[in-house]
Design brief:
alpha/beta, N-(1-d-carboxylethyl)-l-norvaline Dehydrogenase, domain 2, four-stranded mixed beta sheet, globular, binds NADP nicotinamide-adenine-dinucleotide phosphate
Length: about 325
């Protein structure tokens, strides 16, 4: 723990943070811990796969059955309920759509907390939620976990499906220093870097701030694609400028081929973008910060989802502007 340092305490953030930065290369070979993974969507599947490939004893659960076939072939055990998945696990990872999904996994007779309570172990198990659920929900789940004698870390990620498969995500982490140190080796298989934002919920606060920025950034791209087309600029010409000029960023560059091919299959859906916009406007409202542009973006994305674009990649918003 030599890389810990004291920082100013922010509200709810605790007093100590781990200094951010790159994660060490993960240890290869058979690992000692049993790990449960719940949520096998676009992100959860490749992330869980990395832990199986790293040698962890992995138990997986997904609400819709059958999405774990490849993982089972690779060596994971398929569980029928969250309760069964966490049986004997030292670490429980969740990667689901939103707060409602996480709460439904955690609670109830066949839920995560009941399952962990039924299998007492020497060390308190840790639940690591990597979904984007917002600060309020993370604090609520952290409190539920504490009452059940379980540690909780919020570790939403920056990066999409490609970085997830390559273990190149960036984890934005909230939780106590010791417990974050405990999960750090596992995060090392999934992420290239970890930013410790503070106590429980602060990882989510940071993720919501980052995604608020992303919403401006990607809605701007969708609207300017539509404007470029309307004034007679070829798609590849606009993309050449966008991906090589002063505003070129990895997120624009990585979408180039997809946009050129009019491929709207979601790396990140417009429906999830709406959820994130709502989390950002909610955080701003609670903090008493007026952000009218962010509110307008939320309304635009909402209109796109109502128009039936929610299941498509977020840049499908260009269809609405057209
Ligand atoms: N995709 C990205 O690029 C990206 C990047 C960073 C962060 N994230 C965040 O990561 C999380 C997962 O994203 P994703 O792209 O993997 O989403 P996704 O493909 O839509 O998968 C969502 C997962 O949540 C589960 N789920 C939804 N509602 C549920 C409920 N009520 N009870 C139990 N499980 C439920 C789904 O189960 P079913 O299979 O049964 O539907 C599925 O496993 C989201 O919070 C997202 O904002 C995504």
């Amino acid at each position: 723990m030599s890389n810990e340092r004291k920082t100013d305490a922010t509200k709810g953030a605790g007093t100590r943070r781990i200094k951010g930065g790159s994660l060490p290369p993960p240890a290869p070979g058979k690992q000692g811990s049993t790990v449960a993974w719940l949520g096998l969507g676009a992100m959860g599947r490749p992330m869980a796969r990395r832990l199986v490939d790293a040698g962890y004893d992995l138990r997986v659960f997904n609400r819709t059955p059958g999405r774990d076939k490849d993982l089972v072939k690779a060596g994971a055990l398929s569980a029928r309920t969250p309760y069964d998945a966490v049986n004997g696990a030292s670490f429980v990872f969740t990667m689901v759509a939103d707060a409602h999904a996480l709460l439904s996994l955690m609670s109830g007779k066949r839920g995560v907390l009941a399952g962990l309570a039924a299998t007492p172990s020497k060390r308190r198990p840790v639940v690591v939620d990597m979904s984007t659920i917002g600060r309020e929900a993370a604090v609520e789940v952290s409190e539920m976990a504490r009452e059940a004698g379980v540690h909780f870390v919020d570790a939403p990620v920056s990066g999409s499906v490609g970085p997830a498969a390559r273990g190149e995500l960036v984890a934005l982490v909230g939780g106590g220093v010791r417990v974050v140190e405990r999960v750090r080796p596992l995060l090392g298989h999934l992420c290239r870097a970890l930013v410790h934002a503070g106590g429980p919920g602060q990882g989510q606060a940071l993720k919501v701030v980052l995604n608020g920025l992303g919403a401006h950034h990607l809605v701007a791209l969708a609207s300017m694609l539509a404007l470029g087309e309307r004034v007679g600029l070829a798609r590849d010409v606009v993309l050449d400028a966008v991906t090589s000029g002063a505003f070129a960023t990895p997120s624009y560059v990585s979408k180039r081929a997809k946009i050129l091919a009019h491929d709207y299959t979601p790396d990140f859906s417009l429906a999830l973008t709406l959820k994130d916009c709502r989390l950002a406007t909610d955080l701003a409202r609670r903090a008493g910060v007026a952000l009218p542009v962010l509110s307008a973006i939320e309304r635009e994305v909402d209109t796109g989802v109502r128009a039936g674009l929610g299941h498509l990649d977020l840049y499908a918003l260009e269809k609405m502007y057209r």
